[in-house]
Write a structure and sequence with these properties.
The termini are far apart. About 30% of the residues lie in helices and about 20% in strands. The chain is α+β, with helices and mostly antiparallel strands.
């Protein structure tokens, strides 16, 4: 039985987005393993911990409008050199992309 607030619940990962999967499988082995390490870390955290973790650096993306039905898009550090885009839906972290570079996460060129 769950107790406490939503932010005290563990993060549940949704890795089913085809773009996220394509980005993940296109990475070199060392980076792909680093992504898997981060994903493993995320699934062990509560939402409160995700928001405060200095390594993950959860940030709201204000330069890009979210798709219909999504309140806000966020970026998080998925490896030392890459960020992922995602959104929160309940306890789920729904991953959308792994950006090829930091600026493309925020819609900049």
């Amino acid at each position: 039985m769950k107790t406490g607030t939503r932010d005290e619940n563990k993060v549940r990962l949704d890795l089913n987005n085809p773009v996220f999967q394509e980005n993940l499988f296109a990475l070199q082995k060392t980076e792909r393993l680093a992504v898997l390490d981060t994903l493993n870390k995320l699934r062990q955290l509560t939402w409160h911990q995700v928001y405060r973790d200095n390594g993950i650096k959860w940030e709201k993306i204000v330069s890009v409008n979210p798709p219909e039905g999504i309140n806000a898009l966020y970026s998080l550090r998925i490896t030392k050199s890459r960020r992922a885009t995602a959104y929160r839906e309940g306890d789920f972290l729904r991953l959308l992309t792994i950006a090829p570079d930091h600026d493309s996460t925020y819609g900049k060129k």
